[in-house]
Amino acid sequence: MKKPWSGRFTEKTADIVEKYTESISFDKRLWRYDIEGSIAHAKMLAKQGIIPKKDADKIVKGLKEIYKEIESGRFKFREELEDIHMNIESALIKKIGEIGGRLHTARSRNDQVALDIRLYLRAEAREIISLLKGLETVLADMAEKHLGIVMPGYTHLQRAQPVLLSHHLMAYAHMFDRDRARFEDALKRINIMPLGSCALAGTTLPTDRHYVAELLEFDAVSENSMDSVSDRDFSLEFLSCSSILMMHTSRMAEELILWSSEEFSFIELSDAFTTGSSIMPQKKNPDVAELMRGKTGRVYGNLMSLLTTMKGLPLSYNRDMQEDKEPVFDTVDTVKLTLNALFQMLPKIKFNERRLKDTADAAFSTATDIAEYLARKGIPFRTAHEITGKIVRYCIDNNKRLSDLSITEYKSFSDVIGNDIYKFIGTLESVNAKKSYGGTSPEMVKEQIKKFRKRLK
Ligand code: ARG
Known about the structure:
This protein has 18 helices and six strands. By secondary structure, the chain is mainly alpha-helical. The chain has three domains: about 5-105, Fumarase C, Chain B, domain 1; about 110-360, Fumarase/aspartase (Central domain) (Fumarase C, Chain A, domain 2); about 360-455, Orthogonal Bundle (Ribonucleotide Reductase Protein R1, domain 1). The two termini are about 55 Å apart. The chain binds arginine.
């Protein structure tokens, strides 16, 4: 098959070069966007009188046919035609003859590929945004449904203070909400139209780039033709947003793994979202959550991969940049699968309410409440902390819980302690009293969920 750029060459391309330089095996995924972009470009060329209107019509018709052929799987992609751009252009010329060669007027593959990735990432970012919205809704629903459940809150993975399960769930909802905002923000920079920058310098032909932007619904036209063909920071931004998102899903997955262990026994994952062992018949493993944690590695790797590819590249386009696609595609697939799996797995989780409450009760998790009680009675917090520490020590030495101590025992630590102390050492009372803004009291959490839902709309 004749290469579109073969004019100045006398020797045939070596086989290894075709293997080494091809990108069609993976960039064929961009076909939809490549055709969409070409149709807009052809219309612009005709409108500007750069090519005859009747030729543009034939080009558009031909491209639409190729669209259908690819969609139905009838199209044959050829490695010797390198990439998706040349595959489609060659097919067009084969279909409608030499006039198909007018399509590549006033553009190059450099701006064409930039356009294709931007169109692709725009669509995928929008889809991820809607998946995140779904996930946030699921979390808010769960938080609302489980408002009555108290659990131990942790720092250093040591029981710290009792909290509402809903509060814990909403913490993740907020993380995913910021992830969504990050993708929305990245979209502003993705949605810029680079076509018409040509190879790097622009063109002598009277193009109308704004018209192309309008047809393809871009927010703006890129301002510098060299930047337009060299820039991949919009992809890097997408990969960064994805990495942060995966960091969040990974943390959540880790908690689900811990919580479903015999040792924690906080939750039971549904059978549909766990797998068995090939040797140990009793096992029910949280593999989906583990893979959520594990797949984070490849997404971080993809970010590092593209950062490294771009580092030190002189302006403007370099073929190195062809290496941008696989990390992006792999990230899109991984993120979407992960969000889908989490979205389906979460609502099926059963919480062991009794166990969560007992675990919250067991430790001295309301010790901070005693210290704050003393502070309210006028004792400087540092001193109150010290006194409470001694109370805890006394309990440990005498194998007692905070609620077991008599008022005489309490008073021996400080005479400001009165009978009302017993109102502050229960787990439920502790949670109910955390009424500070953003705190874990049911009142505040209900308020939080309400505000969150309003923002989601
Ligand atoms: N397949 C190429 C890429 O993805 C398209 C641009 C090729 N441009 C060039 N001058 N060789 O980067």
